[in-house]
Amino acid sequence: MENEKILFHIYGTGSQGKTTVIKKLYFKIKEEFPNLSVIEESLSDDIKCVVVIGNCRIGVESQGDPNSRIFKSLKYFVEKKCNIILCCSRTKGYTIEAVNQLKSEYKIEHFRKYAERDISKRKYADEKFVNLVWSKMDLYIKEISTRTVV
């Protein structure tokens, strides 16, 4: 993980719960690291933000549909020198291409999101998915945030 930048990418077809997962992960970051600094935060139906935890900058974007701000947000997060980016996209097309264009600068962890067909099990399935992504994100956040800057 030394000097590594990473992009956590949630992808899937429409209406699979990608935005819900991004929101839950963002609020998990805020819950687990209450002393973080917020550089930018735009909260509505979607989230776009940059937060700082120690030496770690995290960019979060919940819009991942074609014709959304994902393209501008990814460029913005790179300009802001985010060590970690959390975003989503569709399974194919321009949105996933925009994510993959960052592979020379960022290690990309892809997570495919499917909606649980059984509505009674959907909340549990979403929480399980959030916990899977969080288990990896948390390690990076802790390692990068405490890293000594030379």
In short:
By secondary structure, the protein is an alpha/beta fold. It has 4 helices and 6 strands, in the order E-H-E-E-E-H-E-H-E-H. The protein has a single domain (6-145), classed as Rossmann fold (3-Layer(aba) Sandwich).
Report the end-to-end length measured between terminal Cα atoms. 16 Å
Overall pLDDT metric? 90
Work out the count of structural domains: 1
The neighbouring-strand order within the major sheet is: 2-3-4-5-1-6
| Percent of residues in β-strands | 25-35%
Query: What is the CATH architecture annotation?
Result: 3-Layer(aba) Sandwich
Q: Uncertain spans, ≥5 residues at pLDDT below 50?
A: none
Compute the number of strand runs. 6
Query: What would you call the shape?
Result: globular
- CA radius of gyration is 15 Å
What is the CATH topology classification name?
Answer: Rossmann fold
- Outline the biggest β-sheet: 6 strands, mixed
The percent range for helix content is 25-40%
Describe the protein in words.
The structure is a single chain. The chain has 150 residues and is α/β, with parallel strands linked by helices. It has one domain: Rossmann fold (3-Layer(aba) Sandwich), CATH 3.40.50. The protein has 4 helices and 6 strands; from the N terminus they run βαβββαβαβα. It has helices spanning 18-32, 70-79, 94-100, 119-145; strands spanning 6-11, 37-43, 47-53, 56-61, 84-89, 107-112. It has a 6-stranded mixed sheet with strand order 2-3-4-5-1-6, with helices on both faces. Strand 3 (47-53) and strand 4 form a beta hairpin. The longest helix has 27 residues, at 119-145. The model has no long low-confidence stretch (mean pLDDT 90).
